[in-house]
Each structure stands twice: as structure tokens, then as C-alpha cells.
Amino acid sequence: MKIPYRWVKEFTDLALSAADAADRLVNAGIEVASVTPLAPAGLAGVVVGEIEAIERELGESHGHRLLLCRVSTGRERFSVICGAPNTKVGARAAFAPPGAVLPGGRRITATKIRGVESQGMLCSERELGLGDEHEAGILLLDADARLGQDLITLLGLDDHVLEVEVTPNRPDCLSVLGVARELAALTGARLMPPKPVLKESGEPVTTLVRVRIEAPDLCHRFTARVLGGVTVGPSPAWLRARLRAIGLRPISNVVDVTNYVLWELGHPLHAFDCDTVSEATIVVRRAGKGERFTTLDGQARVLDDSMLVIADPRRAVGLAGVMGGADTEVTDRTTRVLLESAWFHPVSIRRTSRALGLRTDAAYRFERGADIEALVVASARAAELIAELAGGAIARGMVDVYPRRRKRVRVRLRLARLKRVLGVAPPATRARRILGGLGLPTRVRGAVLDVAIPSFRRDLAMEDDLVEEVIRVWGYDKLPSLGTHGARAATPGALPIEMRGALTAALHQAQTVRRALVGAGLSEAITHAFGDPARAALFRAADAGEPLRLLNPLAQDASVLRSHPLEGLLGAVSVNVRRQQPDVALFELCKTYEALRGAGRPDPATVEPRWVAITLTGRRTAPAWHTPDAPADVYDAKGLAEHVLAALGIAARPGEAPRLGGFEPDCHAALVNDAGAVVAEFGEVAAPVRAAYGVDAPVFAAALALDVAAATAAPPLVYQALPRFPAVQRDLAFVLGAGQALTAAEIEVELLREAGPLLRQLTLFDVFRFPDGRRSLAWRLTFQAEDRTLTDDEVNRIQERVTRRATETLGIALRSA
């Protein structure tokens, strides 16, 4: 939301710069994304000029008459050639004399056009960088604009715009007044909200218009005013400039006022052409099923009975809280205006806006919760401005249908609670002043503050909400810092708070997993728990049930809960690959969601198993001069799974019972614990699954069941000193006959059994197949002692034992060369 800072300062006497004000807001929890100058970059030297006379016509250019005009700036006169269609004698307009600079670095000089010298330029909005309007002609200014005045000053462009990002729980800050209120409370400045003064005349409004609410559950309040004798036309320059500053396009004085008040006070309004409302009667009702309605943007829309409309006795005239109708819009023929200011249920507006794809400033505010009491002030403010800028008379009174009056809310804040939560507390008078500055009337009753919650602060409902309000205004820097032993450092008046407890087992496990995988070079991803049912079906194993469906999904491709640990992570791989990042190594700590159905269980219960999912695609390592450019493979996925299990202290071995779907059948295996439970699965992601995610390259993955890992008894960690003595390495290669079906794991069991405690590491580093079907497997054995340097004789004796055991027990031969 864009907020011109000078507009804010109209409501509070701040002495801060725009940047300093932004810092104060950020420190109080109101995010300000940027502070930018309002004036277009490079604009300088443009002033107010008056067209005193049109001296002659110089022919046509591009369909426009070229006119030689005499332009005065009050001190000087210039001969200027202009082809704008709205050029007229007596008009005051934006004039760039010789020496002025327009956006883009264009410097104005005297130049000849058709042999006649033109001394300067009468400028359009687009040439000044103020908007896109060009064909309508030059930028005309108010008749009372002072000649020679700098245009930037006249239009209030010597200002800065705060880009404020308001969280959904703070709709009170979706206005200039709301931001001004925050700054006034933070600085102690005086808040000066607008106080409309209405000059009413003529008939009472109750004789001119009637209002009936037929859906009081969706519309809690509706007010109406009538203004007669209105002349619709362009808004004055100051109003057009202010609307452009906040990113809105000026339309007409009446419509511009409703937009202006929306931004100023935060409450949406709508103006109807009163003469087009049948029987001068407004009916607030639900739409009929299939009812058709044409909105202001000219689009015919089909409504349903969950949507709220503003209607007359014949048809709908507005989509409540979202957009008005084309049949009753204010035009240049309008002379009577019916001004609506109402309160609509946030959920109803949000559903209607989303269902129709209509995102408007009004809907944005209503769906976050408008102020049901402030709508009266907003209506009066708009009526005052319309009467001032469009003429006419305001009918006496206001129709106010308010069937469900808001109950007054009061919350007690105990000073003891304030101190207990924060560890320190301001004096009661200071706390009362802070709350009062935020618009929260407060009475002191001993050690308790009795706070009245106004209608614009719907986010305040309990005592701790008020604690937060006090500290964010008083300053988070007032909180005592934590000491080195977990208790707050000694501060006068502070209540020591001891940080007790430790990480839960699940959090400790997650922390261990993160440390292991980040250390291995992977990046953590966090993905949505929602999934696409079409993709989920590709992961489903034969005996798996249907995924859990959401009752109110955001979209079809996010309508089920994750049923496979790789669903979200493969989406992240797809995003990276599509953005030309082919080498991806990711992991995610996630949950899957499964339904449990059984006898005596009418409704399905759910379980949420915890997983760590790992995916790899592309190269194993980043290419470098000293690193081979090797692609990742299934053994990388297996190694990472074993690496995580080792970090958790779990011994795992290959198993034969993988259960997860989504892998290639011939490249899918499991790791089991000592009890035979599957603790991890790994393999290559199936080609149909990769195709569904748009990934062409092979993807290797692993999924570790953290709940199974947590239930696995792990031996206690034993720490030992780093070895002080050197290791000795020996290589052994064995030849297996063509008919022998031994596995490398079976051979390793015998080698480890015979080698004894001095064998520290056993690594298979080579596999070779002979043309006749024989196989050669080579291992590297690393021996090391903790108390001495091993001699060759010791290692030779162990090597002989290991070789004899393997050859005699397994019937394999030692390879000699």
C-alpha cells in the first residue's frame, strides 16, 4: 500500500523525515518495504503557465492543429507552438520553459517548428512522467494556481511515498489515518483526524431513499446519503496528483472522492447515480442462483446464492463490497448521487472476490475486517468533499440501518502480567499513555488498566494482546537481554526468567539430520503439504489407500494432503531444473498423512509419519579442475541414507522389502534395522513420475522413516581420541567363478570376522568382469592401533588369516595380478 508521507503529516505534527518515520514503523512491527521520492526522476524547472492568447494557426501535424500560443509565467512571456486538442485561451497548464528538464534527461530548448521559433513546451501527463494520458492534451491546472509556481511544489510532488506492507491482522493500518495514528503513538505527536462539517439542506434523506437489509448475517450495517445538484467533471489537480501518487487513475470528481476517502480513512464507499436506482430503494440481499450481473468493468458475471448484492426492487446494482454495477455508475450526466457506506462480512467478501476473480481495493479491506463504526465518518467525509468539488446540496440526515449493533469490548491488563511476560514494565501512567495514543481509551483501577477496545482494532481480544501493544510502542530495546546462563541479565525492576527444558527427542533428531545432510553438501527445502491427486496416484503402491482430500482446496492441483515423502521435494527439483539449474541436491524434513479405517471406526482417523526425503539429480559435485565430472547415481542416495542413519547411531543393513511406490522396480532397495524393520528406502525415481514433474534427467532419491528410526534402539555414543599412530593399508582382490552367486556383502562378513579389532575400515573399490563370466572384487583394508605403530609382520599375519578364511570358507581365489 502506497502512502504519501505529506498526507500522513496532515494528520499529525511529526518532525521526522520520511526515512526516520519508516524506521519507527518497522521497529513497531509495521513493515515498510521502501521509501521513494514521489516526483518523477529528472523532472525540474516545470512551472505554472497561462495561455494568454492564440496568435495564429500553423497547419496540421499528425491530425492535430498546430497553434502558436503566447504563454505567461507571471514574469516572462514565451511564444510556444502546441498541438494539444485542449489548448484554450485563459487555461493554466504545466509549462516547461527553455532550460527545464523532463524525465529521461530531455532538456527543453528553443527550437524552430515550420520556420517559427517555439520557446518551451506545454506538457502532457505522459511527458511529465505523471501518468499515461497524452492524447487528451496538456496537463491543465486549477484556475487559481499561482503563475510561475514550481509544478512539483504545486502538485505536492516534493514528497516521499512509503510502501507499507500490512499484515492481515492489522486492517486499521490500511489507511493514511491508520499509519498516522501509529506514528503519533510512537513519537508522542498529536493526532489530528479529519472532522467533517456538513452543510445539509432540503428534504430529509429518509424521504428520498429507502434501505432494506434482507441478509443481516452478511451485512451488519448499511448507511446512505443523497446529494443533489451535483456536477460531475474532472477533479482538481491536487486530488488527481494525490491519487496518482498512490497508484490510482483519476476518473471524475465524485468517483475520485470515494477512492480518496478509502485511502484516507480506510473504509470503502460507493457512489450510485441515484436516478437509476429503481423506486429509490436499496435492497441488500443474497444473489439468486445463476443471476447475471454486469460490473463496472463491463464484464457480465454469473452469481450464486452465496454472494451478497446491493439491489433495487428490479435488479442487482452492485456486488457488495467488491464492485459496483455498470447500470448505476456515476457519469457526466449524473446530477443526484446516492452515497453508500456499509459493513459486510469478511468471509462473504473474500469468497465472492475469489470466486469471480475480482481483486479490488474495497474487497481487500472488507475481507480483512472493516471498521463498523468508522463508516459514518467516512460517509460524512465523502459527502463533504463531493459537495465541495462537485457542488450540489447534501440532503438532511443519513439512512442508517444497523440491525446487529456491535457490543462494546473491554479488556483488563494487569501490570503484574505485563511485568511477568516482558520481564520489565513501564510505569502505569506510561502504559496508559501508550494505549491512549493507539486509540485505546484506558482507565487505571489500582494495578489494573481497564482498556476499551475500539471497533478498528479487531485484533485485540485478550490481555497478552495489550502486552504486545505496550512493548512494541515502548520499544523492544527496553527488554532485558538474556544472560550467559539462560536467565535474563540483572536489570533494575526486571523479573528473572530462567530458560528451562531441552529439545524434545523429535527436535533433537531433526537437528541431527539437518547437521548431517547440510554437512554433506545438501540444501534444505520446505514445501507445501498439499499435493496434486494426479501426481499422488503415480506414487501410490498397490496396497496403499487414497490420499486424504481437503474440504476447501485452494486449487485442483493442491486438493490432497501429501501421501508420499518425495511429492513436494520433486516439485522443488522441477523448479530448479526448469530454471537451468541441473545439479540439484535437496532434502526435506516432512510428514505424510494417512487415513486409518477399521472396525468400530466410522470416521477415518489419521496418522502423520515423519520422514526425511533426499533427492539428487545432475552432477555429484560442482565441476573443477581437480574434481572428476561424475553424475550422481543410486549409490549416492544409498550413501546419504546410511550417512543420516549413522549420525542417528543406527546400524542398518540391506533389506528385501521396500514398500514405497514411485521408484523404478529394478533400482529400489531398503535398509533395515537390527529388528528387521524398514528404516530407509532408496532408488531411482520412476520415469512416469519424473515425466509428471517435467524432469528429463534421472533423479535418485531416498526416504528415511524418522519414527521408525526413533524407535530403534541406538547404542550410546562413545567418544574417543583421534588416532596418534599411522594407519597401514593393504589391497586384496578375489576372483569368483562364473557360477558363483556370492555377493560382496557376504564376502565382507567373512573378512570382518577374521580381521579382528585392528581393522578400522573395509572399502570395496573395484569390480571387474572377465569375458568368461568370472568376477574380480577388490577391497582396501585399513589397519590401525591406538597404542603403537603397526609393523609389517603384524599386518602380514592378519592379511594371511583373512585371505585363508575367504578362500577356504567361500571357495574363492586370491587374484595374483
Describe the structure.
- The model is unreliable at 483-495 (pLDDT under 50).
- The strands form 12 sheets. This protein has a 7-stranded mixed β-sheet, sandwiched between helices.
- It contains 21 helices and 43 strands.
- The chain is elongated and about 115 Å long.
- With 817 residues, it is an alpha+beta fold.
Question: What is this structure, in a nutshell?
Answer:
With 817 residues, the protein is of the alpha+beta class. Strand 4 (64-72) and strand 5 form a beta hairpin.
Q: How would you describe the shape? A: elongated
Share of helical residues: 25-40%
The strands making up the biggest β-sheet line up spatially as 29-32-35-39-38-37-36
Radius of gyration, CA atoms, in whole angstroms: 38 Å
| Total beta strand runs | 43
Topology of this structure?
Layout: E1 2-4, H1 5-9, H2 18-27, E2 31-37, E3 47-61, E4 64-72, E5 77-82, E6 92-96, E7 101-102, E8 106-107, E9 111-113, E10 116-118, E11 121-122, H3 125-128, H4 151-154, E12 160-165, H5 176-187, E13 200-204, E14 210-213, E15 219-228, H6 237-245, H7 253-265, E16 270-273, E17 281-286, E18 292-294, E19 300-302, E20 308-311, E21 316-319, E22 323-324, E23 337-344, H8 346-356, H9 361-366, H10 375-390, E24 393-396, E25 399-401, E26 409-414, H11 415-422, H12 428-437, E27 442-445, E28 448-453, H13 463-474, H14 505-519, E29 523-524, E30 530-531, H15 533-539, E31 560-561, H16 567-578, E32 584-591, E33 594-598, E34 601-607, E35 610-617, H17 634-647, E36 653-655, E37 663-672, E38 678-685, H18 687-693, E39 699-705, H19 706-711, E40 728-736, H20 744-755, E41 759-769, E42 775-783, H21 792-810, E43 813-814
Parallel strand pairs: 13-24, 14-17, 29-32
Antiparallel strand pairs: 1-12, 2-12, 3-4, 3-6, 4-5, 6-11, 7-8, 9-10, 15-23, 15-24, 15-25, 16-23, 17-20, 18-19, 20-21, 21-22, 26-28, 27-28, 30-31, 32-35, 33-34, 35-39, 36-37, 37-38, 38-39, 40-42, 40-43, 41-42
